[in-house]
């Protein structure tokens, strides 16, 4: 094993002597402190910031030394000597202008580029915490979301990041939100308080976590036949499903219009939990809930895997998923999940999406607390409660003034949600049913606005069972009035 001494401009901060390995990559500058650290461990830190790294497995070196804010090109010359390497850059858009972001490092022995193999990414999961006191809403460890005030330059913001030790990992161009990551163990709650009054910062939040509702199977499991293979009509407007993903092998070919993994963009679309595939069946019209006779055309689906394998997502992943859905041509977005944690960034993101013509639909929640659940409770989102097949309130459905419409909450699926195929219940099903109806309407009336589509839906609804379940029920009769006048 070869040992490399890596000496840069200066020793890091005096407190850095407590770090066996310190790593920070901000734009085109590198901070690093290493003490006989294997090179591959340092390269894994690049991977943690979203950089794709390929390395020849024959390369075995240890690194000692430190740099503070060295230009990355110069740092890599020292760090990777005497090996050959290639780097690729990309540009993050946003209010700060062009922010350079390292995209790939390829490291190999001279003349052996093809021997470089990807450093495998750990299966991405959002590391959730409830903060120092353990009482905060769940958020992603070591991360903050930030927007900057108008006129703030990248150089100004870089100086701020240098003061707090943060690094821009990604940006959502649609909302102008930057994802800032810090060294492991950083007290981001304290940083949030510090940054809130900063004159460069417009708004700062924790990167809140939302969880999928647990799978609620009903009764004994039963074998459910897959839906008949029917394809969307040519030119149909797709419906987006932001969920646990999509399993192409579980559905008839042809309904997937576009797909993306917002959790791990380098991975092919899949669905470890099954919930997203269930919702895609309903949103596309391949399946209908129990007691529901409405049947429209089959719609193409834009499936975005927004939740990790443990059923968690982050606010930033949701922002990116919405942006992808809009760019993929969807007009209706189904979000069969929610959280009681309000977020200014999420509120603004829903407003931005609605202004761009997206019709947003979300589940009211599977706990009858009467408390608002987000994103359903945002004014630009249609909140959907759940009823039984005979139109009575489902006992598990949330209710309240924020609920706008209710729909059947029981359906039978050929795939399970963290369990076997069979019957499942939840406002997730209700939300996807309403989202499908609105998408059907927009396909029938391509010149209709989202406001006119919602107005037509509400005019067609059957009377609600009681207060707190919206202006009415989307049952079979309402479906006929809405889509087959």
Determine the oligomeric state from the structure: single chain
N→C terminal distance: 77 Å
Superfamily (CATH H level) name of the largest domain? Peptidase S8/S53 domain
Q: What is the domain tally? A: 3
Report strand order across the widest sheet. Answer: 15-16-14-18-19-20-21
Average pLDDT metric: 91
The radius of gyration computed from the alpha-carbon positions, rounded to a whole number of angstroms, is 25 Å
CATH architecture of the largest domain: 3-Layer(aba) Sandwich
Structural class: alpha/beta
Determine and state the CATH class of the largest domain.
Alpha Beta
Strand content: 25-35%
Unreliable residue runs: 1-18
* Annotation, overall tally of beta strands: 23
Largest sheet: 7 strands, parallel
Tertiary shape: elongated
Percent in helix? 10-25%
Features:
elongated; 3 domains; alpha/beta; Rossmann fold; 10 helices; 485 residues; 22% helix; seven-stranded parallel beta sheet; Alpha-Beta Plaits; six-stranded antiparallel beta sheet
Explain this structure.
The protein is an alpha/beta fold and 485 residues long. It has 3 domains: 117 residues, no CATH class; 81 residues, Peptidase S8 propeptide/proteinase inhibitor I9 (Alpha-Beta Plaits, 2-Layer Sandwich); 245 residues, Rossmann fold, CATH 3.40.50. Helices cover 22% and strands 28% of the residues. It is built from 10 helices and 23 strands. It has a 7-stranded parallel beta sheet, with helices on both faces. Helix 6 runs parallel beside helix 7 and helix 9 packs across helix 10. The longest helix is centred in the C-terminal third of the chain and has 18 residues. The N terminus is likely disordered.
């Amino acid at each position: 094993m070869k040992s490399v001494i890596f000496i840069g401009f200066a020793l890091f901060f005096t407190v850095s002597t407590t770090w066996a390995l310190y790593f920070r990559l901000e734009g085109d500058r590198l901070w690093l402190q290493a003490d006989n650290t294997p090179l591959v461990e340092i390269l894994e830190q690049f991977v943690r910031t979203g950089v794709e790294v390929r390395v020849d497995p024959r390369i075995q070196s240890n690194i000692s030394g430190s740099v503070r804010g060295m230009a990355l090109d110069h740092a890599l010359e020292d760090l990777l000597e005497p090996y050959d390497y290639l780097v690729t850059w990309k540009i993050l858009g946003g209010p700060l202008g062009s922010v350079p972001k390292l995209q790939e490092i390829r490291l190999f022995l001279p003349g052996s580029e093809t021997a470089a193999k990807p450093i495998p990414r750990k299966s991405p999961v959002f590391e959730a915490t409830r903060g120092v006191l353990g009482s905060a809403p769940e958020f992603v460890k070591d991360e903050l979301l930030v927007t900057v005030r108008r006129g703030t330059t990248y150089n100004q913001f870089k100086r701020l990041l240098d003061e707090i030790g943060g690094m821009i990992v990604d940006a959502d161009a649609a909302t102008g939100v930057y994802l800032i990551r810090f060294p492991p163990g950083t007290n981001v709650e304290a940083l949030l308080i510090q940054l809130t009054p900063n004159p460069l910062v417009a708004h700062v939040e924790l990167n809140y976590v939302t969880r999928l509702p647990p799978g609620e199977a009903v009764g004994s499991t039963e074998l459910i036949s897959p839906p008949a293979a029917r394809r969307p009509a040519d030119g149909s407007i797709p419906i987006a499903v932001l969920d646990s993903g999509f399993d192409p092998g579980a559905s008839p070919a042809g309904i997937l219009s576009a797909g993306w993994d917002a959790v791990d963009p380098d991975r092919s679309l899949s669905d470890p939990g099954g919930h997203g595939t269930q919702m895609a069946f309903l949103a596309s019209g391949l399946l209908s809930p129990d007691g529901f006779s409405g049947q429209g055309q089959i719609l193409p689906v834009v499936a975005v895997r927004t939740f990790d394998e443990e059923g968690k997502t982050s606010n930033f992943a949701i922002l990116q998923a919405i942006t992808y859905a809009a760019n993929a041509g969807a007009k209706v977005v189904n979000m069969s999940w929610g959280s009681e944690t309000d977020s200014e960034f999420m509120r603004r993101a829903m407003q931005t999406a609605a202004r761009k013509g997206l019709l947003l639909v979300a589940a009211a929640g599977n706990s009858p607390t009467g408390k608002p659940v987000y994103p359903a409770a945002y004014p630009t989102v249609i909140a959907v409660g759940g009823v039984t097949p005979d139109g009575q309130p489902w006992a598990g459905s949330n209710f309240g003034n924020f609920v706008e419409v209710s729909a059947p909450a029981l359906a039978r699926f050929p795939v399970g949600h963290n369990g076997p195929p069979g019957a499942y219940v939840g406002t997730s099903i209700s939300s996807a049913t309403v989202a499908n109806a609105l998408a059907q309407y927009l396909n029938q009336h391509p010149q209709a606005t989202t406001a006119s589509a919602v107005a037509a839906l509400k005019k067609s609804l059957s009377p609600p069972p009681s207060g707190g379940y919206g202006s009415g029920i989307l049952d079979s009769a309402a479906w006929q009035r809405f889509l087959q006048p």
